[in-house]
Design brief:
homotetramer; mainly alpha; DNA-binding; 203 residues; 9 helices; elongated; Tetracycline Repressor, domain 2
Chain lengths: 203, 203, 203, 203
Amino acid sequence: MNETKQKILDVSLDLFSQKGFSAVSIRDICKSVGIKESSVYYHFKNKQSIFNELLQRFETTATDLMCQLEQGVNALPDASGENLYGKTCGCFFENYLMDEYCNKMLRLLSIEHLHNDEMRKIYDYWLFDKPLNFQGKVFSVLSMSGMIQTEDSSYLAVKFYAPIFLFMQRWLFSGALTEECKQVFRENAYKHVNHFFSELGDK
Amino acid sequence: MNETKQKILDVSLDLFSQKGFSAVSIRDICKSVGIKESSVYYHFKNKQSIFNELLQRFETTATDLMCQLEQGVNALPDASGENLYGKTCGCFFENYLMDEYCNKMLRLLSIEHLHNDEMRKIYDYWLFDKPLNFQGKVFSVLSMSGMIQTEDSSYLAVKFYAPIFLFMQRWLFSGALTEECKQVFRENAYKHVNHFFSELGDK
Amino acid sequence: MNETKQKILDVSLDLFSQKGFSAVSIRDICKSVGIKESSVYYHFKNKQSIFNELLQRFETTATDLMCQLEQGVNALPDASGENLYGKTCGCFFENYLMDEYCNKMLRLLSIEHLHNDEMRKIYDYWLFDKPLNFQGKVFSVLSMSGMIQTEDSSYLAVKFYAPIFLFMQRWLFSGALTEECKQVFRENAYKHVNHFFSELGDK
Amino acid sequence: MNETKQKILDVSLDLFSQKGFSAVSIRDICKSVGIKESSVYYHFKNKQSIFNELLQRFETTATDLMCQLEQGVNALPDASGENLYGKTCGCFFENYLMDEYCNKMLRLLSIEHLHNDEMRKIYDYWLFDKPLNFQGKVFSVLSMSGMIQTEDSSYLAVKFYAPIFLFMQRWLFSGALTEECKQVFRENAYKHVNHFFSELGDK
DNA sequence: AATGAATGAGTTTTCATTCAT
DNA sequence: AATGAATGAAAACTCATTCAT
């Protein structure tokens, strides 16, 4: 049933995230899936719509995930702040940046984002605006509850997120997403998180 | 003359950096240059070698530029530190990240960097390793001459460079490189640089 | 169905054996078959593999044919020698040298045999080594059963086969394989065969 | 001056005789000669006319050679027959079949002879009709002067020439014309010549 | 749900040739 | 005598897609 369709989506994501949409042919996809080219058209209208479905599914998944994280943040003041934030942070790393599926989608976006305005908007949203926005909210909550003091929670968000974004680009978007790569990313990211909060506390 | 060859390179860079290598056809290039498709093959062995030459020329240019910047840094201790550094920093922004040619090349690298190992290495070098290395050197020079105090100049480099990298991805790799985009980047980047140094001084 | 594939093979052999592999274009083939150029690639990987399949099929066919002839020879001593040999000989002429299919393949080999080592080996095998070997075996069987007397059955094979080879090149590889050409060949070949055996008997 | 033209002819013959006319490009020729493609057109009208000139020069050369041989034959009755014929024969082998230039031309003819009627006529003339004719004349001269006895000098010519033709195709048209190949040819050919004349004498 | 067969449009590339210099 | 630059035509091949089965 939907098994084949799912396989097509999986394989397509895999190949698209490595070589980009236009460098992958229906043939390539079918060779990997183990079906004939004509069979693709039973499941999808055309090549583009494979891509579209990939995109649409990602947006649903990512929206869900971010909603969850945001709900966690709203509970922050009542909870033992830093702990809960640590969890939230870990969830963002493990289930978004390092999750095999999301990671491939983010790579794909980063290859295709120069193609057209729509792509660019989606890319900007999921790699910049949303994470920064989220981080900003965190800091404003923490600030409002007196846990930290800051005038500019949006610059604070940049200072917090930018190194993570850099580490991600360096270690999570480079070649295969091996356990080794993840580990290097984790080390750098958590070191940064710790530094960041200890410096915040100093002031 | 070489005029045509240069035109092919210019147009190719333009198109490649917008759509990626495989989404641009020789036809597209020729239409823009105003020659017939077969003429391309007088100047280049094949499509790939246009890309290769683009890459090779960029590496020469970028190496030159970075050498200059590094010589500036070596002169730092003798000079009125921050001023010279400000210049160096501005040069890095204006002549590398925002220079029309370099900017296109960096976009191109960021589209193609997942294609193969070689691409990935070049991308990593010019967008992470080289800039971070350079920034690290700056901080170690400043630290040795007593201008700043730090134990970990490489993490300092990350804290300094990461937001710039983020602003670049956000404003300089997004759509056309308009004067407006550049201005937004400059505002954010210089705000960050100032914040950064004022915080450094505080300690 | 396989009809198209067979038609491509037939037409290709026809054209290749007239003009040589590289002087025949896929377009030429398709025009004759009545399909579009892209359709060829459903049945064959590329132009070369049409040639390869042609070659491979011929080797199977020719091996079969020669096996049959050799079995005939093994039965020679028990049978009324010359008669059976006459049949064998006729079969070699009619079903190999003059058979429309084999004839075209042998022409093709004779056009392409200088191209590379593999071609040369196949050509040498099917036009020299195999026939001479076969003829040598015939004479050694006839000699062992006392029907003829000879010390050097391999030179005898040359004396027997060389004129046939020459007549073949002269009359069967020249222009279209018309009934007229065949008749001239037959006359010359059988005259030679008769002369040859009558001289053999003289000694 | 004509140095370049000659070099083009030499290289062309070399390549044509290996791969056939249509499989060799002007580019291939120029690469070997060391000139640019456009320069060919100073010396030749087009590709075809290189081939034509090659052909025309060969016909002149070969005609000359054969004339010489025929003059030798006319002198036969007066001379010590067999000796002179031995020389004539050796000359035909060494200066025609095994001569580097003639050999290449004969190969070329054997690749191209199926292409069109004109080619076929030239091929037939220089590989069958002329040699057989010449040999027939020899035998008729020898016969008329009582040195040998034969009713059918043309079949005698076939019996004499066919094995040489076969050895030539086998050893002189196969791969490069090495000293080794020549030696194998000589051994087989001279063995045949001796056999032939001793058998002739027997009768 | 899948595939065999076909195709139009397009891809990259090659080729012989031209012509001004 | 040679070449740099260009080109029209054609080559081989790829690709996304269609459609009957």
